[in-house]
Write a structure and sequence with these properties.
single chain
Length: 198
């Protein structure tokens, strides 16, 4: 089907992804049709296929983009930690994870809730990216364990537990709430520090 008049890939493509992200987060992947996404964007249903092969590809692209941005964001933050010890790196990771994810609540939500709807090959690719991110934290914990800065037995399991705890901020934090985001980061850093015996 022809592209809707006035539609441009550099404008409509991101609108398609943004609409899918909102609808998947609000209603769930299985409940959302391509027609609903098209209606949200303001194009005919057939026009969506100019921007994505199918709904599965759309979900995969959203989850992959989130993980790519997360990994790139942490890589940039980690660059600024050259020469710092594991304790400083762990605090930086804690604050980064909370700050990054609270700005992307819908992306975080579908990244956890819609994994089960990925095809096996797509699931494996997203799973590998998630393990890469977990390894960033596990490496910090292992370095701290080696240097005697942290008192932990299982750095990899501890990394997964800490990420789950930090991601949980998204379930309750609201900008209009009693605590500012930096205050929340500090509270969670204190909990993380106590967890690892720093």
């Amino acid at each position: 089907m022809a592209r809707t008049q006035g539609s441009h890939s550099d404008i409509t493509g991101p609108k398609v992804r943004d609409a899918a992200l909102r609808l998947f987060a609000r209603h769930g992947y299985a409940a959302v049709s391509m027609r609903q996404i098209a209606t949200e964007v303001g194009v005919q249903a057939g026009a969506l296929y100019n921007y994505t092969p199918d709904k599965q590809s759309l979900l995969f692209d959203l989850l992959k983009a989130h993980m790519d941005d997360l990994l790139a964001g942490w890589a940039a933050a980690a660059q600024r930690l050259q020469g710092r010890d594991a304790r400083a790196a762990l605090e930086a990771f804690t604050r980064f994870h909370i700050h990054f994810n609270t700005k992307r609540a819908d992306a975080v939500f579908i990244s956890y809730m819609e994994l089960r709807n990925l095809s096996p090959s797509n699931f494996d690719e997203i799973g590998a990216l998630r393990r890469d991110y977990e390894s960033c934290l596990a490496d910090i914990l292992e370095a701290g364990q080696h240097d005697g800065v942290f008192n932990i037995r299982e750095p990899r399991i501890t990394a997964m537990a800490l990420i789950a705890m930090l991601t949980g901020v998204n379930t309750w934090y609201r900008e209009q709430g009693r605590l500012s985001l930096p205050e929340v980061e500090t509270l969670y850093w204190n909990m993380v520090r106590q967890t690892v015996g720093a």
